[in-house]
Write a structure and sequence with these properties.
This protein is α+β, with helices and mostly antiparallel strands. It has two helices and five strands. Strand 4 and strand 5 form a beta hairpin.
């Protein structure tokens, strides 16, 4: 499985599903109150670096993020 290789791959999954996976791997809190989590995401993220993972998810969807301690705030660009 890809997760054993340090990678999560998604094919047409809701952003909510993808972000829940991200939370599990990085043990972070997410504030998604300003975005639509029903958007569909196809792509992947690495389990090695939080910022690379966040960029892999947010850039294709036109989102941005701010890291504040253990909380990541996602917002529209």
């Amino acid at each position: 499985p890809d997760w054993k290789k340090g990678l999560s791959i998604f094919d047409s999954r809701t952003l909510e599903f993808v972000l829940n996976e991200l939370k599990n791997y990085y043990d972070i809190k997410l504030d998604v109150s300003n975005i639509d989590t029903t958007q569909i995401y196809t792509g992947s993220f690495t389990h090695e670096n939080l910022e690379i993972a966040l960029n892999s998810i947010t850039l294709p969807l036109g989102l941005s993020y701010t890291i504040n301690g253990e909380t990541v705030l996602l917002s529209n660009k």
